[in-house]
Write a structure and sequence with these properties.
6-stranded mixed β-sheet, alpha/beta, Rossmann fold, 5-stranded parallel β-sheet, 418 residues, globular
């Protein structure tokens, strides 16, 4: 590896990154913190590096301080761990002082973690992304010894999706027929195809999403975890997608897989689900009302993006609505989010917020409406609620119940923007 190659790569990054047009995503940073960005493939981790660079430039740092290296660059294919110091040497030959270091896909170089730890020990400021195939969130604390902050990066929220399309909303947008119509049209696209930044400009969105899923499947699941029976794994993902609204026991999924003629045990499903969570393909919710042993075996599993879920569904509007509610709540509340299932079934429960939420495509059917409302009323009787909501596709009203409970019915496209 020659120093001139590194010099060229450093200079190229300094030339083009300040000129990249970005939609700024909300993320706060400790002033001298080191960070690793973790998330599903193609969710925008590299763009977070670009955004942080542009933030630092606005704060007064010079572009000459910036060292951005993408280890997917074909010029670095022969690079080894012992070559990492060339980056620091190359910078020192061109500039004085310590650089600000941005490393994209650093896991391509075996032994990267030793270099990353040394940089932190030497008080460099470092920002890292990596493919989930080789570097996952739960590995980072062990690999980097607590020297880095982890930041989860998700596909775009609906608000970010609108911003990327230059649909700017003021505080009274709901009273503007033009803006409201624009939001509803945009939501239909977001609802079915999700929030991956690159899919926004693609016409063949379903094909793009299928290709992305195949990359995740083979690289982040099969190769990383050395899975031999790809057919069982593929069918497990499909059955989980079809069961996305239901509390699901691992035994049930294994039986569904077996019904296709494949041999699959419950412990295999449990292992595969853990791999999917590691790859940020899925996230899981526990039942707030269950015993600890049941929490580990019966969960609700949701996909990290509606576009990825939708490739498995036919006429899956109700599943997509609940999945999108789960995404929104999980990004906001994380491990504080549960579902409730004991004598009453409620889709989402936030005990610290005293909030319960039902997801229902519409309330036009009387039996469906009564079921959703009565579930919230029953929960309120033994877990007093401060907020109760039913999220629908388009319905909007307020329901007053005799026990002092007020239930707000809101369309999802409006709720996501609150």
């Amino acid at each position: 590896m020659e120093k001139e190659v590194i010099n060229s790569i450093i200079r190229e990054g300094q030339d083009y990154i300040p000129e990249i047009e970005l939609y700024s995503r909300p993320m706060e940073f400790e002033q001298q913190g080191n960070y690793v960005f973790v998330g599903v493939r193609q969710c925008g981790k590299s763009y977070m590096l670009y955004q942080r660079i542009q933030q630092l430039l606005k704060e007064g740092h010079s572009i000459k301080e910036i060292v951005y290296v993408n280890f997917d660059d074909e010029r670095l294919r022969q690079m080894k761990a012992e070559d990492f110091d060339l980056i620091l040497q190359s910078y020192a030959s061109l500039n004085e002082g310590k650089p600000l270091l941005f490393f994209d896909e650093i896991q391509n170089i075996n032994g990267w973690e030793h270099f990353a730890r040394r940089l932190a020990n030497q008080k460099y400021q470092v920002f890292i992304t990596g493919s989930n195939a080789k570097m996952l969130g739960r590995d980072i604390a062990t690999t980097l010894g607590g020297r880095y902050w982890t930041r989860n990066v998700y596909p775009f929220t609906f608000k970010e999706f609108l911003g990327s399309k230059n649909i700017i909303l003021d505080s009274h947008w709901v009273y503007s027929p033009t803006l409201k119509a624009s939001v509803e049209r945009a939501f239909n696209e977001y609802f079915h195809f999700g929030g991956f930044p690159e899919v926004f400009e693609v016409n063949a969105k379903r094909i793009w999403l299928n290709e992305l899923y195949n990359k995740i499947f083979f690289s982040d699941l099969v190769v990383r975890n050395k899975i031999r029976n790809e057919a069982v794994l593929r069918m497990t993902v499909k059955r989980l997608a079809e069961s996305v609204k239901q509390p699901t026991a691992y035994n049930r999924i294994s039986n569904l897989v077996k019904s296709t003629g494949l041999n699959c045990q419950a412990n295999t499903v449990m292992e595969y689900v853990e791999f999917m969570r590691d790859a940020c393909l899925l996230f899981s919710l526990n039942n707030y009302a269950s015993k600890f042993s049941e929490r580990e075996t019966i969960k609700k599993h949701y996909f990290v993006d509606n576009g990825l879920l939708n490739i498995f569904l036919n006429d899956g509007e109700t599943s997509l609505l609940e999945n999108l509610c789960a995404i929104h709540l999980f990004q906001k509340y994380g491990e504080e989010l549960y579902y409730y299932n004991k004598n009453v079934e409620v889709d989402f429960y936030l005990p610290e917020q005293h909030t319960a939420i039902q997801a229902c495509y519409n309330l036009s059917d009387l039996q469906t409406s009564e079921r959703e409302i009565n579930a919230l009323v029953k929960l309120h009787a033994f877990e007093p609620l401060q907020h109760a909501l039913i999220i629908t596709k388009d319905d909007e009203t307020v329901i007053q119940k005799g026990n002092g409970l007020t239930i707000e019915v809101k369309p999802i496209w409006k709720w996501l923007l609150e």
